[in-house]
Amino acid sequence: MNVSTLITVISCFLSGMIGASFASFINVAASSKGSIWKNISRRSSVCEKCGKSLHHWELIPVFGWLFLQGKCSVCKERISTFHPVSELLLGGAFVILYLNYLDQPLSLVLFSCVTLGLYFIAVYDVFRRKIPNVFIFPLIIVAAIIRFTNWSMIPEYFGGALLYFSFFFLINVLTVTGLFPGVKKGSKGFGWGDSKFAIFLGLLLGFRGSTISLSLAIFAGGVIGAILMLSGSKRGTKIPFAPFLSLGSFIALVWYEEIWDVLMSYFLI
Ligand SMILES: [Zn+2]
How much is the pTM? Predict the structure, then answer.
């Protein structure tokens, strides 16, 4: 292995560990009990069942869980696989960002921050089944200010926000009125949290990116929904949709030009 390959491998590992550490931190902040700020200040470094303080090595993302074999070393309470899996996912996302934006430090930092925001909203929805207003409204305002300062790009980004929002608006109206196939009148549908998240994603990704992100989210959500149904999950169990939106948006954020080119060459020829 030559020196430059070795440096790339070490840098990828470090990027992955940074992403995984953020996942570990965000999982605690967004977890279902207490306010975000309280959760951050008390940083869960004890076993929730027996109160045993965790050693530093037990707090290392992914590896800590592996060393402990997924159980508390004292009371043997199981530690959910959600933790290592989510840490691997965000770690992997950081490696992808590092490899794609290695020569553009500003984009690397900016896209890493956006990815952290997408991850936070996804995990918050998993734990609490809602999108935090205190977080999503400032994001919408900042994205609108950045996007609408360039007049020539307004149709692209306004179009993205409109497309994304319209999808959720339509689904909500159809489910609430009972017109959606298989849904009882008065159902809550996706809820308005996803609609707010949709406006942010549309502003972030523009029309083309939104088309890709939304299609991927619907596809991934459909696949997971089908798997849950086949595995005997209760009918009507509500699956949080923000994780799929975040996943689709991350892919669209990094590869939307490549995906769009493939789609265009496929449909236009
Ligand atoms: Zn314990």
Answer: 0.90
The tokens for 162 are 């409109």
Ligand 1 is an ion; its neighbours by CB within 5 Å are 47, 49-50, 52, 72, 74-75, 77
pLDDT of residue 173: 85
Centre of ligand 1 from the C-alpha of residue 54, in Å: 9
- Long-range pairs for 133-141: beta carbons < 8 A, 24 or more residues apart: 133/196, 136/193, 136/196, 136/197, 136/200, 137/196, 139/200, 140/196, 140/199, 140/200, 140/203
CA–centroid distance, residue 90 to ligand 1 (Å): 26
- Ligand 1 centroid to Cα of residue 53, in Å, is 9
Percent of the chain with pLDDT strictly greater than 70: 91
| Cβ neighbours of 215 (radius 10 Å) | 14
